[in-house]
Amino acid sequence: MEQRKVHRIVIAGGGTAGWMAAASLSRLLGRTLDITLIESDAIGTVGVGEATIPTLLTLHELLKIKEQDFLAAVRGTFKLGISFENWRDVGKDYIHSFGWTGKDCWAAGFQHFWLKGQRMGISREYGEYCAEWVAAKQNRFAVLPSKGLNYAYHLDSSLYARFLRNIAEGHGVRRLEGQIRQVNRDGESGYISSLDLDSGVRVEGELFVDCTGFRGLLIEQTLQAGYEDWTHWLPCNSAVAVQTESVAPPIPYTRSIAHDAGWQWRIPLQHRVGNGLVFSREHYSDEQAIERLLGNVEGKVLTDPRVIRFAAGTRKLHWKHNCVALGLSSGFIEPLESTSIHLIQRGVIRLMQMFPYDGIRQPDVDEFNNQMRFEIENIRDFIVLHYHVTERSDSDFWRYCRSMTIPETLAHRIELFRQTGRVFKVPTELFGENSWIQVMLGQGLVPEQYHPIVNMMEDDELRRFLTGIHDSAQRMVQQLPAHQRFIDHYCRAS
After folding, report:
1. Exposed site from 56, 376, 399, 436, fewest CB < 10 Å?
2. For residue 227, how many C-alpha atoms fall within 13 Å in the half-sphere facing its CB?
């Protein structure tokens, strides 16, 4: 493989992926790099993903972003988790919160103590032992010292791209307006050498970042990295999105409302609400999906319904030759757990960790691809869990999900929890034990037994243990202001 020093980076495409890459590379590595981003105003971005997860706070700390300024700019609100409504069955809801539930011991997680308490009739709902869950239910929030609450954001993705663009251009990134007419390759190495714009401008570079969305202009149309389709596990393949006026103060969590052929999101911002319906075209037509969505929104509709097509899956190679794919060009796992921006962030951070200053080397490329694939497959399994472990049988869609063959890695996790109550987290995996426990319990999967170490605790001691955790979470949340009140004080958009 060529050992050309990397000085010129060309980012093809803007949106959240392009400008997150540009802002991060220029802010954290940019003194020695020449970075150009090519973006066309004539090509829209998907831009419906408005919910994030707590990992975004880490990137913002690296970029030295002041939280109040960011939230005011993107008209953001806070997010403590996701409410899953009608997923286990119609009329049955639960919240997957970002916090930690209860207290573990060295041999067994809190769920084992909770399970014995449930059999004794003294356990409350599992989430009541988690402060973030309690705060979400009571519509309270505050940013606490030492990260006393785990949280993420709801944001306007187009405003976020603009916010990141200001950071990137402030650190020397050059933006070129125009559409890419041709991708040129070196005849010997197969590397991309330059991009020709419709204006006639040629942009040369040593490293190219593909942020061109689903079409994957560089990574797929040019380099043919390949795509692994996961629609047999994730059957939703379309979405329709609209924005509506706010009719109530914003709640500090995302709503995910299951329907008979998919699910609907509802994401509150400071100035409006983002709505969308993710659905399977095998079970809904576009017209049915639009009708279902518009019949289940609150407030005046501000935008025309926009239909988006996708195929859940992953690029077989996220880095090929001298091209790295980020965002939708690298693959797509539906937005059920708000992982899209996280995967962009992880790709950018991995690229910076393995940055090929002295030339692209195959071991770096292989390691990048292996790490990206490992993380995406674990996220895939977590998303499939929501569909497969369900009591719903009211439609062909849900009957398919219940009976479909699932990845062996997921089948093992489910059976381990079902039979023993145990969960595990492998290194670098995104979702921790508490996330798996909350969703498996929420979807109706109750373990057959608990760890015998729990029996070392006398019944009265277990009662005091559970009550103490519950009461502590309640006392903490009672001190928090209402979510809207905190936004008004902390980060209200002008």
Report:
1. 399
2. 20
- Model confidence at 1, pLDDT cuts 50, 70, 90, reads very low
Residue whose tokens read 């489910």 = 414
Adjacent-strand bridge partners of 306:
241
Task: Out of 284, 309, 334, pick the residue that ends a domain.
Answer: 309
Residue type, 342: H
Each residue of 451-470: pLDDT tens digit? Answer: 999 999 999 999 999 999 99
Average pLDDT over residues 10-18: 97
What is the pLDDT confidence band of residue 45, given thresholds at 50, 70 and 90? low
Instruction: Examine residue 281 and state whether it is found in any structural domain, yes or no.
Output: yes
Helices (H), 30-125: 56-62, 67-74, 110-120
Residue 89 above 60 pLDDT? Answer: yes
**pTM attached to this predicted model:** 0.96
220: containing domain? 8-50+156-230+312-360
Q: Please list the residues that pair with 320 across neighbouring strands.
A: 323
Distance CA 53, CA 47 (A): 17
User: How does DSSP assign 83-95, residue by residue?
Assistant: EEEEEEETTEEEE
Q: Characterize the bridge pairing of strands 319-320 and 77-79.
A: unpaired
Distance CA 174, CA 38 (A): 9
CATH number for the domain harbouring residue 192: 3.50.50.60
Beta carbons of 155 and 74 less than 8 angstroms apart? yes
Residues 348-376 as b or e (16 or more Cβ within 10 Å = b): bbbbeebbbeeebeeebbeebbebbbebb
Q: Is residue 267 located within the same domain as residue 305? A: yes
Tokens of 420: 């023993």
Spell 309-339 as b/e; 16+ CB within 10 A means b. Answer: ebebbbbbbbbbbbbbbbbbbbbbbbbbbbb
In the chain, the N- to C-terminal Cα span, in Å, equals: 52
Beta-bridge mates of residue 209: 11, 324
**pLDDT (tens digit per residue) in 336-381:** 999 999 999 999 999 999 999 999 999 999 999 999 999 999 999 9
| Structure-token match 């006392």, residue found | 475
Alpha-carbon span 408 to 424, nearest angstrom = 15
